[in-house]
Amino acid sequence: MKCCFICLLVLLISCSRDTDTIKxxxxxxEVNLAVxxxxxxxKINSGVFVSISGGGSGLGIASLLNGTADVAxxxxxxxxxxxxxxQKRGSSIDSFVFAQDAIAFVVADDLPIDxxxxxALTNILAGHYKNWLPLTNKNKVIxxxxxxxxxxTHDFIKKKLDIDFTPYAKQMNxxxxxxxxxxxxxxxxxxVGAGYVAxxxxxxxxVLLVYPRKNQPAVSPLDAAMIxxxxxxxxxxxxxxxxxxxxxxxxxxxxxxxxxxxxKIIQAAGYYPVNK
Length: 276
Known about the structure:
Elements: H1 2-8, E1 21-26, H2 28-44, E2 49-55, H3 57-66, E3 71-74, H4 80-88, E4 93-108, E5 115-117, H5 118-125, H6 133-136, E6 143-147, H7 152-161, E7 170-172, H8 175-184, E8 188-193, H9 194-198, E9 205-207, E10 209-211, H10 224-228, E11 235-243, H11 247-258, H12 260-268, E12 272-273
Parallel strand pairs: 1-2, 1-3, 5-10, 6-7, 6-8
Antiparallel strand pairs: 3-11, 4-8, 4-9, 4-11, 4-12
């Protein structure tokens, strides 16, 4: 409950004018990082308030469209049909990549598996593998913990693996809920933003190494050097979309994200700064 409250509201804004408030909505992967950036930004820009809420990338883009957000946090690229909706309203959309993220696949720490292939993940998430027996020699039913269809993380994995998720995959509200489910379910597998396991408590869970094909090295989503080299299969840019005609309003916050201090916050939160 406390986490949800923090995600819904970073700073008290009831006494501020709307023109002094930057409203950011969208990706649950980005929400904790955005909170940290907003809190530090406000310390040096006390006249500007930043409110943060999650709900998924799709919700963020929809909020930007209907005018209830100034910035849409998105862990996926905007879809052609979404661009068309903005065009119909005469709005021009721009974007900014402020960090790199990696998707971590997690299991209970007592499941006898340390690495997994992209092929095996494809078979699990599509529902072709329903039991851990082929991968672990343990006769356990596989339980999948993922995100809702409006989640950018869900969309990213679906496209990356070119699959339709099995309808038996459990749809969770966010990364924290997935991690708690995996800790309780010793037959489960889930996926979360790497930042959530890089800086959080990993007691009870294990982050799997991923290898694209046999005889290729398995890579950890927590290996900063491999991410920087583009060598992890499930890495992606974290985006912020905004209407071009509102750029002057949000520019101070974007400039802060680009600054050395902003990059330090991004890195400390378990994500990877963009060098530009």
